Amino acid sequence: MEAEAREAVGMLAVDVGNTVTRLGLFADDGLAATWEVTTPEHLTIDEARLVVAGFHDALERRAAGGEPPLRAGDSIVSCVVPDLTGVWASALLAECGRRPLVVGPGLKTGIKMRYRDPAEVGPDRVADLAAALADYGGPLVVVDLGTTTNFEVIDAEGTFRGGIIAPGLALGAKALAQAAARLPHVELKAPTSVIGTSTREAVQAGVVMGEVARIDGLVDKVEAELGCEAEVVVTGADAAAMAALLAHEARADDTLTLRGLHRLYELNRKKP
C-alpha cells in the first residue's frame, strides 16, 4: 500500500491503428510519456494488459531519484480494428480500475461537422480533429500518415468539411512488391534523385515521391475548393520526414492524435 501511495496517477490514451498502437500517459501538465507497439492481427486481454504493464515498468525505470512513478488511473481508447476494441476496453478496465472511454457514437466531441453521416468518421480521425481544432483552428488540412493517408479539412469557421482517404505509403509499397514479382521491397525513404538509376531507387521515387506529389496535389485541390490557403499539419508515421519533402509549408505534429484523445477525455469524463 505504501508503494501505491507514492505513485502519481495519470490518464492513459490508447490509439489502436491498423499497423501501430500508440499509448500516451498524461499528467496534470500534459503529455508525460509515450509508448509504441505493433498492432497484431489477434490479441488477448492478457496480452493487451502486458502492453500497459510494460509501459508502466518503463516509466518506473525512468523515474528519477525519489520521484514517484506515473501510472494510469483512467483511460480512453480509439480503435480502428473492430475485433480489438472490446479487448482493449477490458484490458484497460483491469489495469486502471475504471471503465475506459471508447471513442465512438455518443461521445461529445465539440466538433462542428458538415458530414453526411458523422458516425462514419473513424475514431482516429475524430481525435485528430479534436486536437487540431483546439490547437490550430482553421482553415487547416491535417494529413495523418499510416496504413491509410487521411486528410481532414477544417474551414475558416472551424467546421469539419470532410476529408480524403487514400492508401498509405507502406501499403502502396507492399502492393507494388506483391503485384510485380521482380520489384523488390525497399526502404521507404526519399531517393537522392527523382529519376532513379537503379530499380530500388526507381521504386523509392515512385512510392515516396509519388506520395509527396499526391499530398501536395490534393492540398492544392482542397485549397481551391475552400477558396483560400490552409495551414498543413502532418502527423503519424515519419511525419517530420514527409513534412520536409512537401512543397507546401507544413508542420509536423507527432502527438496530435494522442492529444486529441486527451481532449475528448476531458470533454466526457465525469469527475468522481
From TrEMBL:
Pfam families for this protein: Pan_kinase
SUPFAM superfamilies membership: Actin-like ATPase domain
Pathway the protein acts in: Cofactor biosynthesis; coenzyme A biosynthesis; CoA from (R)-pantothenate: step 1/5
Binding residue positions for substrate: Y115, G122, P123, D124, R125, T199
EC code(s) of this entry: 2.7.1.33
Primary residence: cytoplasm
Sample GO molecular function, one term: metal ion binding
Needed cofactors: NH4(+); K(+)
Binding site residues for K(+): D144
Entry's localization field: Cytoplasm
InterPro entries noted in UniProt: ATPase_NBD, Type_III_PanK
Claim: Transcription is one of the keywords in the record: no
Reactions that this protein is recorded to catalyse: (R)-pantothenate + ATP = (R)-4'-phosphopantothenate + ADP + H(+)
CDD domains in the cross-refs: ASKHA_NBD_PanK-III
Binding-site list for ATP: D15, V16, G17, N18, T19, V20, T21, R22, T147
Active site (catalytic residues): D124 (proton acceptor)
GO cellular component: cytoplasm
Cofactor binding annotation: A monovalent cation. Ammonium or potassium.
Protein's job: Catalyzes the phosphorylation of pantothenate (Pan), the first step in CoA biosynthesis.
Summary of subunit composition and partner proteins: Homodimer.
HAMAP family: Pantothen_kinase_3
Family: Belongs to the type III pantothenate kinase family.
The name this protein goes by in its record: Type III pantothenate kinase
Organism field: Gordonibacter massiliensis (ex Traore et al. 2017)
Name of encoding gene: coaX
